[in-house]
Amino acid sequence: MTVRIGLCSVAHLHADSYAARLTDLPNAEFVGVTESEEREAEGRAKADEYGVDYLDPDALLDGVDGVIVCSTNADHLAWVRRAADAGVDVLCEKPLAPSVDDAQQMVDICRRADVHLGVAMPLRFNQPVRNAKTAVENGALGEIRFLSGTNRGQMPGSWFVEEEESGGGAVMDHSVHIVDIVRWITGEDVREVYAETDTRFNDVPVEDLNLLSMTLTDGTEFVLDGSWSKPEQWDFWGDATLRLVGTEGVVSIDCFDQKIKQTRDTGDPGIRSVFWGSNPDEGLVADFVEAVAENRPPTKTGADAVADVAVVEAAYESAKRVEPVDVEATELTSTTN
Q: Does this model's pTM top 0.70?
């Protein structure tokens, strides 16, 4: 079965990667791109770059089985509502929404419309992460006592540093990836967050530095550095790591360690790291296409992602109050979307 997929907005940096994956998948037809009126020129330019049609939103939604939403965070709710009204399954960029209220609205809208809502968490398809999950499930680490993670990258600029469009800075942009895989691997949620944030590396109006000290529901301590701390001249965009310390062993995950350094002394001289490992976006997009074809939820559901947004919301509250904050994720009546 060939599944017809479109892109709703190309504002997010990951749109290029998803477009490439859709083009490569034999069971997917990349139908086209649509955008908001304000960003139509950008949408048309990207459609030309991808070699697909640019369509107005109603025309695209009428001709697809599923869509990937790559808009600004603030526009996620509007695009998901529009897709749900058209009866189209959705894979939405992370974070699901800038607030728990908006995230829960999206889950409820899709549930009422009987469409599946997934969230783009590609690290679930990263092989080192999957190996670690298997090790934990097999009891190789014993009881987990401590977790330490990083998701440090370059400052993305554009709408990511405009709070009205993004909902925040590095905490909003980077924390959810590692929080998600910790919740996925351990089966525990985050119970409490103490956050310290600041703006030190870039001249931007949002935080580019953060350190989150968290406690999981089973009492395990978990610390995370999700800062935009890599300089523009860095040899690689950033990192995604997690160290799990158990009573019987330790596992260290480096999601993008499979790379080689390339040195140039002509043209544009310098050093860069070239990643040669498997691309987790391939697994993410393939899972969504298969989910649409099989009429099942994607691996990472919208309902599950509400808890990630609750951690981010609590982190900002903690930084504001300068004290630990309990995470109060919205109670869900269903976990299928």
A: yes
* CA-based nearest residue to 110, from 279, 266, 301: 301
**From the CB of residue 24, how many other CB atoms can be counted at a distance below 10 Å?**
12
Instruction: Give the tokens for residue 149.
Output: 């993670």
Least confidently predicted of 21-25, 69-73, 274-278? 274-278
Residue 180 structure tokens: 């998600």
pLDDT over 70 (residue 160): yes
Residue 1 confidence (pLDDT): 83
Torsional sign, CA 295, 94, 13, 58: positive
d(CA 33, CA 7) in angstroms, rounded, equals 5
Q: With contact defined as beta carbons under 8 Å apart, do 332 and 303 qualify?
A: yes
Crossing angle for the helix pair 302-321 and 170-186, to the nearest 10 degrees: 130
Are residues 179 and 171 in contact, defined by beta-carbon separation less than 8 angstroms? no
